[in-house]
Design goal:
The protein has a single domain (about 1-130), classed as Roll (2,3-Dihydroxybiphenyl 1,2-Dioxygenase, domain 1). The protein has three helices and nine strands. It has helices at about 15-20, 65-70, 85-95, and strands at about 1-10, 25-30, 35, 40-45, 55-60, 75-85, 100-105, 115-120, 125-130. It has about 140 residues and is α+β, with helices and mostly antiparallel strands. Keywords: Metal-binding.
Length: about 140
């Protein structure tokens, strides 16, 4: 596995892009993408010439878990790791004490590539995304 992106929760993607991503040199590399299964709107940012990605994540409604997360003052949402074997890496996380929140499912933001979610005892949220060569977000 290798780090793919850091997910930052926000109540306003545009405002966070202007106040956080832009000053750090990140530029939008995707449009805003709604994933109804994840109940989220996301947009990806990258520093030119690097493999350094940030995903801004916003709830797609007031009832979305992300909206509630942000209302509680949280910002850093998750670390995402790209994997060539999502099932094996998810099993490894499980064996090492992670609770599996979501088994692999296709994700709109990744053109149908599968993602899975896990959390450890310290409540650190991890996303796994399966690798696919040639995709805009493959690093």
């Amino acid at each position: 596995m290798k780090l793919h992106h850091i997910g930052i929760a926000t109540s306003d993607i545009d405002a966070t892009a202007n106040s956080y991503c832009k000053p750090l040199g990140y530029k939008a590399i995707s449009e805003k993408i709604e994933d109804k299964v994840q109940r989220a709107i996301v947009q990806f940012f990258k520093i030119d010439g690097t493999n350094s990605y940030i995903e801004l994540v916003q709830g797609n409604s007031e009832s979305s878990p992300l909206s509630k997360f942000v209302k509680n003052g949280a910002k850093q949402h998750h670390l995402c790791f790209q994997t060539s074997d999502i099932s094996a890496d998810l099993a490894n996380l499980r064996e090492n004490g992670f609770f599996i929140i979501c088994e692999p499912v296709p994700a709109t933001a990744f053109n149908g590539r599968k993602i899975a979610w896990a959390m450890n005892a310290e409540r650190c949220l991890v996303e796994l995304v399966e690798e696919k060569q040639g995709d805009i977000l493959s690093i």
